[in-house]
Amino acid sequence: MLTRTDGRFDCLDDWLEWQQTLHPRKIDLGLERVKRVFAALHPGYLPPITITVGGTNGKGSCIALLEAILCAQGISTGCYTSPHILRYNERIRIAGQPQPDEAICEAFARIDAVRGEASLSFFEFGTLAALDLFSRAQVEVQLLEVGLGGRLDAVNIIDADVAIITSIDIDHKEWLGEDRETIGAEKAGIFRSHRPAVIGDRVPPRSLLERARKLGVRLSRIGRDFDCQLHEAGWDWCSEDDVLRNLPYPALPGRQQFDNAATVIAAMRMLEARLDVSESALRQGLEGVRLPGRYQKIPAQPEILLDVAHNPQAAGLLADYVKTTYPGRRIKALFTVMADKDLEGIVARMKDVVDVWALAPLPANPRTATEPRLLEAFKAVGLTSPLHGFDGWKQALQTLMQDTEGHDLILVFGSFFLIAEFLADHGH
């Protein structure tokens, strides 16, 4: 039973549990309620430099790269991302540090005190708390990751000084639409009239470009206005009037990280009149960036690789990474995703890479795809049934580890929740 004192809960977990029950819909895309509450929370609000990042895949990488570079420069930076892996506090960072329970609870209490009768969702509470804490800390730059879509996502109550769209693929179909054009129109909602934007998708939907044209957005596109060129000594970032040579490889694995890094550099170039970022800080940020749960290697025998690929595009990138990084190795995968994902699309992208599959039950999470639904997806793409019938993911992993040789790779991928439980269990 949750008990409150003077409008407050005693701990962060109680606040979060209460927020899950407050709003009738877990995801309620819309801005009016959030705008009203934020105006009451911070009347006369003057935002810091704001970079909003939307897209299907690559958002977390771009935010992490921006954060690492800005912090290397010594620029006070607030960073809001979702979802978290181990602790809610990961979602709200200042100067690279997750904010403590007490600070987040105090922000929640301030929001609750001014919201009146307005009902707020779990994500809206978190967004408002992040903006509140960044304002109080007087950060110079705030980095806001779009949680879902763009047009009606809560972070869109703030006008971005630069909007970044990473890649666009099919995900969250029930909320955003069935095709890239419809989804592109939703993502374009973070554009602002006559303000700059960067697109890191090499084949962007027409709807995205048309929206930018109508708004008079100063658009910079990868493959047209800037690009990256890889070579043995490093890589070059180039545009029509600028070249950065022999940059270090991004510390985040995967070929797509060069596109993400190039996109981030393009965004910072658009802000260079207001943000003084040295080439030294840029290099330091590229080398020092970290992002848990993405191609994360766990030292073990055999080696374990974790990734949160939970849509077809991300699964395709993971497949390419595994093929090029672990050629000739036997790949054994522990896998599950949430029920609203494109199961067939994910499994199809990985079918030629994985040799042995095991389904990873998450009994405590009702959103997980059921075992019959997962088996149906495997059958639909022409795969024999994976190992299944386990009580939980640990039992599935133990079975998968049997008859495993030293050169095998254990791939744990799919749901953020699976990666979180694995990392928590292994003391990370």
Structural write-up:
The protein is an alpha/beta fold and 428 residues long. The chain has 2 domains: 12-288, 3-Layer(aba) Sandwich (UDP-N-acetylmuramoyl-L-alanine:D-glutamate ligase), CATH 3.40.1190; 296-425, Protein-Tyrosine Phosphatase, Chain A (Alpha-Beta Complex), CATH 3.90.190. Helix content is 38%, strand content 17%. The protein contains 15 helices and 16 strands. The chain has an 8-stranded mixed β-sheet, with helices on both faces. Strands 12-13-16-14-15 form a 5-stranded mixed β-sheet, covered by helices on one side. It has a 3-stranded antiparallel β-sheet with strand order 9-10-11, with helices on one face. β10 (234-239) and β11 form a beta hairpin. α4 (101-114) crosses α5, α7 packs parallel to α8 (206-215) and α11 runs parallel beside α12 (343-350). The longest helix has 16 residues, at 122-137. The model has no long low-confidence stretch (mean pLDDT 93).
CATH superfamily of the largest domain: Mur-like, catalytic domain
Biggest β-sheet: strands ordered side by side in the sheet = 4-3-2-5-1-6-7-8
What is the gyration radius calculated from CA atoms? 22 Å
Quaternary structure classification? single chain
Q: Overall 3D geometry?
A: globular
Major β-sheet profile: 8 strands, mixed
CATH class of the largest domain: Alpha Beta
Number of strands: 16
Strand content: 15-25%
Distance between the termini: 31 Å
As a percent range, the share of helical residues equals 25-40%
In short:
With about 425 residues, the chain is an alpha/beta fold. The protein contains 15 helices and 16 strands.
